[in-house]
Design a protein that fits this description.
The complex is a heterodimer of chains A (636) and B (192). Chain A contains 25 helices and 18 strands. Chain A has 636 residues and is of the alpha/beta class. Chain A has five domains: 114 residues, Glutaredoxin (3-Layer(aba) Sandwich), CATH 3.40.30.10; 210 residues, NADH-ubiquinone oxidoreductase 51kDa subunit (Rossmann fold, 3-Layer(aba) Sandwich), CATH 3.40.50; 87 residues, Ubiquitin-like (UB roll); 88 residues, NADH-ubiquinone oxidoreductase 51kDa subunit, iron-sulphur binding domain (de novo design (two linked rop proteins)); 74 residues, 2-Layer Sandwich (Alpha-Beta Plaits), CATH 3.30.70. In chain A, helix 18 packs antiparallel against helix 19. Chain B is α+β, with helices and mostly antiparallel strands and 192 residues long. The two termini of chain B are 17 Å apart. Classes of the chains: A alpha/beta (636), B alpha+beta (192). The interface between A and B is large, with 61 and 48 residues. Bound molecules: flavin mononucleotide (FMN) and FE2/S2 (inorganic) cluster.
Chain lengths: 636, 192
């Protein structure tokens, strides 16, 4: 079939989609963000409140679900698009605000600007997100549509030029499309940064037989959720990227391997695949081109190591997910022993954009070594948590302090944990590192999948290292001795240290073990497992020393090294909030009316400290616990 | 087989075999389909009972020991029935740092069980998960597929109340190790 016929078929689809969405546009539209994060914040009752109020007032307005806009700190988020007004976004919406917006804005004409977060289109009345400090730094490519389209309506995607890149690609010879991806130097966003084009070319060159394309949506890094968000908010973008990849390498079958913990993503991908089939975008002769490709979904079963590509394939073959030695590389022998291309969700997501706008456009963003953008899930002790997309090369400082608007509660920044269990903790001094694969590796962290957890003065760095070792110890598949036993041994040492039983020699042992595990493991799970220890030892040695030599946890976090104490000077006789909050009845009222904690009973659950009203702020943590002796009311 | 199956109620075995049979009808019982089959059985039954495993092993020709290998390799699979309410406490990085451990401790204290265990009355089971993808709401707890954000120890009590554990009930129930059945179950339910 000729190029013109393919384009014509696509043009037909798009015309339909535009017509359908145009009809919808003439009515007021309420979009409620119902990705997992929105739902957790209560988006479903909010949506119901809108529907009920609109129904009972007999208004002609639609309420639809949308994905995640990335402003997770203000969930549940709602966008109201009423003809005659710029679309407005409202944050932290609850049932009352929903009813008020229906009454004042949909029924009346008052957009309630006092509750609006931002407008989504430039206008004369209200600022848009791009005028936020964050908007200045951000540059959205793969998150651009997230939250702005209905992920369960393929027409929304097509009306915004979705699948146009596919039509363009199918009209070209595969070599030409592949050359463009190679020229763009698109590096894999799943962690290692390997150029996607090189992988694809190898698979293309691996004969004419059956080949597979697999999307790695196992997203195991605890603290990263961008792949989930993309699948839940813009599933067709990933599908389109996968079809283009299959066209380049000559594959007829593709799989999405999605993590067990993401039921909503699985649901939405299934819907998207079905709709794409109905439109002739998957299946036999896509867009009439003669090229055939279809997709299936494999649900993971909860094993972090299955994010590693060879383990992932083993798991799809019905085996235990253990990594294999390479070569042979996946491009020669992967799933079912056939040539296989495996890329991350984000990597595939860039593909349609590169095909549409060209390699030179892509290389216009980011650094020469790593063109394009980086997507981070910004979480932890940072004011504006959420998903952000910034050009590669942006510094961590800008990301945390401009995009994330700094540390909440006037606390002091301590570290940025980047790259998850394989990554590291970078201190204040390393914040001017530009973000890209190579610079981060030099600093001791890795780009990983883009989890960025901000830590402040209340976070203990030894506990962080211990946390990750607990994770890798649990997730080690057990194949390599160094990884299986080494992680256990390192975890034991860290447990001793955080429990106040560390000894001065343990740090040396830790370092040795770390080096051995790095050298003696087959896959990157083991090879990188020591990173959290090595970076914290390098940058936060003083905290290890405080634990070992003084029995003190400087961040007042390690349970065995702290004690709770009620300051008699601050405690009020008239208040007993803490007494009621204590789950183990450890707090009693003394003869003089002040409260005191029975240290024998205290389980250090932090309830009383949270319950104590801010005007008293009488409950404190002490470390080491020996500080208690001699305190008023405490028996020596 | 290394797992001691729990005694099944009369008729339960037949019910299990029927459900597994129906699932096997829709899938070729080959190696590649084993994980999806196990997933579906667990989705229907809540866990992978012994008779189900035997039936799948027989149908697929894969030795039962290999099937148990799979079921224990992957975190998702359970060999023992979960509680009526499943409490999953997130222990991902963001949640851990924001007090996930405190939330888990609170559940353990209130329910008088440890993570990985089920209460003797089978009302609650408690597990940890590593990141459910709502890190911005940390600490997160997933109760029966409903995601709860910003869970404080006080909220833990609220969650249990909403699940119908009258405040005392969870607390007053005999501790697992006091009853022989409870002990067996508690040990069995523990996953490494
Ligand atoms: C222990 C381990 C876990 C991994 N987890 C993931 C993951 O969750 N998602 C992912 O895309 N890649 C993960 N990877 C990297 C993959 O092996 C592979 O490099 C990547 O999916 C390739 O895609 P890309 O080239 O698009 O980055 C993991 C690697 C290791 C060693
Ligand atoms: S760390 Fe708990 S949801 Fe991600």
């Amino acid at each position: 079939m000729t190029a013109a016929a393919i384009e014509a078929q696509y043009a037909g689809l798009q015309k339909q989609a535009v017509a359908k969405t145009a009809v919808q546009k003439s009515k007021p539209l309420v979009r409620v963000g119902t990705a997992t994060c929105g739902v957790a914040a209560g988006a479903i009752p909010v949506k119901e409140a809108f529907e009920k109020e609109i129904g009972s007032r007999g208004l002609d307005a639609r309420v639809v679900e949308a994905g995640c806009m990335g402003h997770c700190y203000a969930e549940p988020l709602v966008v109201i698009d009423k003809p005659g007004f710029a679309p407005l976004c409202y944050g932290s919406v609850d049932g009352d605000l929903a009813r008020r917006l229906v009454a004042d804005f949909l029924a009346g004409d008052d957009p309630c600007y006092e509750f609006a977060l931002a407008a989504l289109e430039p206008n004369d009345v209200f600022p848009t997100f791009s005028e936020f400090p964050r908007g200045v730094c951000e540059e959205k490519i793969i998150l651009e549509r997230c939250g702005f389209i209905d992920p369960e309506a393929i027409d929304d995607y097509i009306a915004r030029d979705g699948y146009a890149a596919l039509a363009k690609a199918l009209a070209l010879p595969p070599e030409e499309v592949l050359a463009e991806i190679k020229a763009a130097n698109l590096r894999g966003r799943g962690g290692a940064g390997f150029p996607a084009g090189v992988k694809w070319e190898a698979a293309r060159g691996a004969g004419d037989g059956v080949k597979y394309v697999i999307c790695n949506a196992d997203e195991g890094d605890p603290g990263a959720f961008m792949d989930r968000s993309i699948l839940e908010s813009d599933p067709h973008q990933v599908i389109e990227g996968m079809i283009i990849c299959a066209y380049c390498v000559g594959a007829a079958e593709g799989w999405l391997y999605i993590r067990a913990e993401y039921p909503r993503a699985v649901e939405r991908i299934h819907t998207a695949i079905r709709q794409a089939r109905e439109k002739g975008l998957l299946g036999q002769s896509i867009l009439g081109s003669g090229f055939a490709f279809d997709l299936r979904v494999f649900q993971g079963s909860g094993a972090f190591v299955c994010g590693e590509e060879t383990a992932l394939v083993s798991s799809m073959e019905g085996k235990m997910g253990m990594p294999q030695t390479r070569p042979p590389f996946m491009a020669q022998s992967g799933f079912r022993g056939r040539p296989t291309v495996l890329n991350n969700v984000k990597t595939f997501s860039y593909v349609p954009h590169i095909v549409s706008r060209g390699a030179d456009w892509f290389k216009g963003t980011g650094t020469p070594g790593t063109p394009g953008t980086a997507v981070f899930s910004l979480v932890g002790k940072v004011s504006h948590t959420g998903l952000v997309e910034v050009p590669m090369g942006t510094t961590l400082r800008r990301l945390i302090f401009d995009v994330g608007e700094g540390i909440p509660g006037g606390k002091k920044f301590k570290a940025a944990q980047i790259g998850g269990p394989s990554g590291g903790c970078l201190p204040e001094a390393a914040l001017d590192v530009p973000i890209d694969f190579d610079s981060l590796r030099q600093a001791g962290a890795i780009m990983g999948s883009g989890g960025l957890v901000v830590l402040d003065e209340d976070d203990c760095m030894v506990a962080v290292a211990r946390f990750f070792l607990e994770f890798t110890r649990h997730e080690s598949c057990g194949k390599c001795t160094f990884c299986r036993l080494g992680t256990k041994h390192m975890l034991d040492i860290l447990t001793e240290i955080t429990g106040g039983r560390g000894n001065p020699a343990s740090l040396e042992v830790l370092r040795e073990l770390a080096e051995d595990v790095q050298a003696g493991s087959l896959c990157n799970l083991g090879r990188t497992a020591p990173n959290p220890i090595l970076t914290t030892l390098r940058y936060f040695r003083d905290e290890y020393d405080a634990h070992i030599f003084e029995g003190r946890c400087p961040a007042l976090m390690c349970k065995e090294l702290i004690a709770y104490y009620i300051l008699p000077k601050k405690c009020s006789k008239l208040c007993d909030a803490c007494v009621g909050s204590c789950p183990v009845e450890a707090i009693f009222t003394r003869a003089d009316g002040l409260k005191e904690i029975d240290q024998q009973k205290c389980v250090k659950c932090d309830n009383c400290r949270k319950a104590c009203p801010p005007e008293h702020d009488a409950v404190v943590k002490l470390s080491p616990p020996s500080l208690l002796s001699g305190k008023e009311g405490v028996p020596k | 087989m290394f797992s001691v199956p729990l005694p099944l109620a009369s008729g339960e075995r037949e019910e299990i075999l029927k459900i597994v049979g129906d699932i096997l009808k829709n899938h070729a019982a080959n190696r590649e389909n084993l994980i999806p089959i196990l997933q579906q059985v667990q989705a229907k039954l809540g866990y992978l009972p012994g008779p189900a495993m035997e039936k799948i092993a027989a149908a697929s020709g894969v030795p039962a020991v290999d099937l148990y290998g799979l079921a224990t390799f992957y975190n998702q699979f359970r060999l023992h029935p979960p509680g009526k309410h499943r409490v999953n406490v997130c222990m991902g990085t963001a949640c851990y740092m924001a007090g996930g451990r405190i939330a888990l401790d609170s559940f353990e204290r209130r329910l008088k069980i440890k993570e990985g265990e089920t209460t003797p009355d089978r009302n609650f089971s408690l597990e940890r998960v590593a990141c459910v993808g709502c890190c911005t709401m940390a600490p997160v707890v997933v109760v029966d597929d409903k995601v709860e954000g910003r869970v404080t120890p006080t909220r833990v009590d609220g969650i249990l109340l909403e699940c119908g554990a009258s405040n005392g009930a969870a607390g007053e129930a005999p501790a697992a190790e006091n009853t022989p059945a409870g002990r067996e179950q508690a040990e069995g339910a523990q996953r490494s």
